[in-house]
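Input (structure):
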């Protein structure tokens, strides 16, 4: 099941649990605006290349729309639609005053030079600048983009609208980015994992972890979990997968990855089949890479007791049902990986106030939001007698529906 179909399915189940009016339900599902633009740039060799850019603005009932921009060859309207909708529910679950959006350009960043990436980003910004804004739609980094990408968007947008640091988040610190933003999603995963394990009478110390994906989110989660006494026995990235049943030396691994651009070849571990990473023996599995990786083909073989969804939509609905029968507890993406958008909100607030917070304040506020968010999700689970995924979806959908009705929606 693709991401859009799965997201729509979860939304409809939540709407049914909430007893939403059918017309309101349909209204909440339809995106506010879908944007598709052609971005033609001169390449370094003098030839022209065209790329298609997308921005889906899903809902603004609770505030400006918010969501990442990804550069990836597989960016398509269905995926962007699904991720925009997920952002609507995610910002509501986190209880921050945003709606949801998502964007992207169908390209392979590794095939483009830095100057080509800059030209592409600036052309994309020129095409959508009048449809984004501080109180309209605030982009952020995602797969294939980074703080430098946000700096280019900020600069190009500011040419049209004056200096506007709050128009994007995930910026470099020197341009108004927030301290703690780089680690935010991974740190949020730590706080979410702590909250879940505490609910089950456990702590991070002494638990065995497997992490699929060792990019920004996975590597920060590994570092922070390891510092809390968690034993990380296997990790993977695009270069391969490695395992050490006695626990990986995360500090050494981070140094190796920085020097070699991947986990492959790390001395203090043995290589394993990357396809087996999800079914390795562990207490806690953290998928932190692409969506749809846990499916009906591998769900029966998963040995973890807990799954923390650090990636967007890593678990297909068919796998959800299989894992539920096995008693596996899944902490859903729209809560578990909301640390990034929460600190993006803190960055936006700081930019608007013109007052920067220190990192301890950012991290303390993030822990408050993540801890409170888990309690809110659990309360909805009790109210509707449902699992954590439906608890999170009913929480998010209910908040957006209430805001929509309060603003004057009529059936």
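Output (sequence):
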């Amino acid at each position: 099941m693709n991401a859009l179909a799965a997201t729509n399915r979860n939304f409809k189940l939540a709407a049914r649990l909430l007893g939403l009016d059918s017309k309101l339900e349909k209204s909440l599902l339809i995106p506010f605006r879908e944007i598709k633009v052609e971005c033609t740039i001169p390449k370094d060799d003098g030839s022209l290349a065209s790329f298609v850019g997308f921005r889906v603005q899903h809902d603004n009932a609770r505030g400006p729309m918010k969501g990442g921009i990804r550069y990836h060859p597989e960016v398509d309207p269905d995926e962007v639609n699904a991720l925009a909708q997920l952002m609507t529910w995610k910002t509501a679950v986190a209880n921050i005053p945003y709606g949801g959006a998502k964007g992207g350009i169908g390209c392979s960043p590794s095939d483009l030079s830095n100057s080509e990436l800059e030209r592409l980003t600036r052309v994309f910004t020129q095409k959508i600048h009048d449809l984004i804004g501080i109180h309209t739609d605030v982009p952020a980094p995602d797969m294939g983009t980074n703080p430098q990408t946000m700096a280019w968007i900020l600069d190009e947008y500011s040419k049209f609208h004056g200096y506007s640091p709050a128009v994007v988040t995930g910026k470099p610190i020197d341009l108004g980015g927030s301290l703690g933003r780089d680690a935010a999603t991974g740190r949020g995963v730590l706080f979410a994992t702590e909250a879940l394990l505490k609910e089950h009478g456990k702590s991070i110390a002494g638990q065995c972890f497997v992490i699929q994906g060792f990019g920004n989110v996975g590597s920060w989660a590994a570092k922070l979990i390891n510092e809390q006494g968690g034993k990380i026995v296997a990790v993977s990235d695009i270069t391969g997968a490695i395992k050490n049943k006695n626990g990986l030396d995360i500090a050494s691994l981070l140094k190796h990855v920085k020097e070699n651009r991947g986990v492959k070849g790390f001395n203090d571990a043995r290589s394993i089949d990357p396809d087996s990473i999800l079914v390795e023996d562990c207490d806690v599995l953290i998928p932190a890479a692409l969506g749809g990786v846990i499916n009906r083909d591998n769900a029966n073989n998963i040995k973890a007791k807990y799954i923390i969804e650090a990636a967007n939509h890593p678990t297909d609905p068919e796998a959800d049902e299989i894992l539920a029968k096995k008693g596996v507890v899944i902490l859903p993406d729209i809560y578990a990986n909301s640390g990034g958008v929460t600190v993006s909100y803190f960055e936006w607030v700081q930019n608007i106030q013109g007052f920067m917070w220190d990192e301890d304040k950012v991290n303390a506020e993030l822990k408050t939001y993540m801890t409170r968010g888990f309690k809110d999700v659990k309360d909805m689970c009790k109210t509707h007698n449902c699992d954590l995924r439906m608890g999170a979806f009913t929480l998010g959908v209910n908040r957006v529906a209430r805001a929509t009705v309060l603003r004057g929606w009529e059936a």
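Notes: The CA atoms of residues 108 and 163 lie 30 Å apart. The radius of gyration is 21 Å.
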